[in-house]
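Schema walk-through. Below, the input block comes first and the output block second. Nothing else is stored per chain. Lengths vary across the set, and this one has 255 residues.
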Amino acid sequence: MDPPPKDHVPFQPVTIEKRSAHDHPVYANFDCSHLTVGAGVAIFHLATSRVVLCFHSARKYWFLPKGRRDANEETCAGAEREGFEESGYRNRILPVPLPHRQPQPHNPASGADSSYVREPIWTQFAPVSASSQYILFWYIAETVPSLVEEQLNASMLAGASAGNETPYQYPPPYPVNLTFNERLKLESEGYEPMHHPNTAVNQEEALYESYLLPVQEAISKLKGSVQADVVASGWEAICTRYEDESKRQEARCSA
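--- output ---
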């Protein structure tokens, strides 16, 4: 897909009709042999207001990358990994303002803004069988900047040259004090996020194609699915953070 024109203005809100924020709460209990935990991700390229969508070349439908968390893997890290394996785009979870219900930490990281979190933005429950349950957490992420891409590529090449298997490289987290405006400056004008071919881990994933699409177009292609709400709510949170940071910067300049 073609990138936006050079005069594109980032962080522009989109208007869509969103579904109810929840279904009815449920009581349910599953032991570990009857529960599967998964994670999915909406990967945004902030500078061009686009999001990564996958397309199943055989079944002809659009979707966000997702999959099962590996054993002993943190759920948000699993979302990043699944995003990379199914789409070919390296990504990292974005801290954004969300109306979550988690308590604030008693000893927050130094300098961290507690109004921005790396929590799931949507959660889905689906039966795997008559006795097993699947729970899927959706996260908001960004394509990694060019410098991080280069560092991860170098790490993989170093492992390959040493004759070692080169497993998935987990990206460093989004820097605590990096504003979105500062983040945009980490990429040159016209930079296109790197797409890695052949990241699929099985024959099914090898059928997936991936594209960076404008947010509004992606929402239209996902219409009728909670994944459309993941993209819409995620972009709304991203725009809200950018607006918050811009207002704070204006207040500091005028003080």
